[in-house]
């Protein structure tokens, strides 16, 4: 037999360290909206950020817009991302609720 080590349990854990979640903080400015396509395979995504709501209210708003607009959406890192170019419809929805929204970029 060779003196070569085949298996050892004292090497520590092979688990990857967990990423810390960024805590979401509501903003005091108006909600901003932009259209993103970069890094998404050419697909367009309407992104709402700088939200003046707490996490629960933002998710409730996202669900409401998903139902109204018939689109997929997700809440990531304090932003609402909706599939497709929905800027005009989102702006109209915010105005009907009396909320301020600003278009950011182009």
Provide the low-confidence segments as ranges: none
Give helix and strand order, one letter per element, not per position: EEHEEHE
CATH class category name of the domain at 31-103: Alpha Beta
Overall mean pLDDT: 85
**Helical content, roughly?**
10-25%
Give me the secondary-structure category: alpha+beta
Largest β-sheet summary: 5 strands, mixed
CATH arch. level architecture of the domain at 31-103: 2-Layer Sandwich
Rg, nearest Å:
21 Å
Query: Considering the protein shown, what is the CATH homologous superfamily of the domain at 31-103?
Result: SUI1-like domain
Describe the structure concisely for a colleague.
By secondary structure, this protein is α+β, with helices and mostly antiparallel strands. It is built from 2 helices and 5 strands, in the order ββαββαβ.
Please explain how this structure is put together.
It is a single chain. The chain has 106 residues and is α+β, with helices and mostly antiparallel strands. The chain has a domain at 31-103: Translation Initiation Factor Eif1 (2-Layer Sandwich). 24% of the residues lie in helices and 22% in strands. The protein contains two helices and five strands; from the N terminus they run E-E-H-E-E-H-E. Strands 3-4-2-1-5 form a five-stranded mixed beta sheet, with helices on one face. The relative contact order is 0.21.
Key attributes of the depicted protein:
single chain, 106 residues, alpha+beta, Translation Initiation Factor Eif1, five-stranded mixed sheet, 5 strands, 24% helix
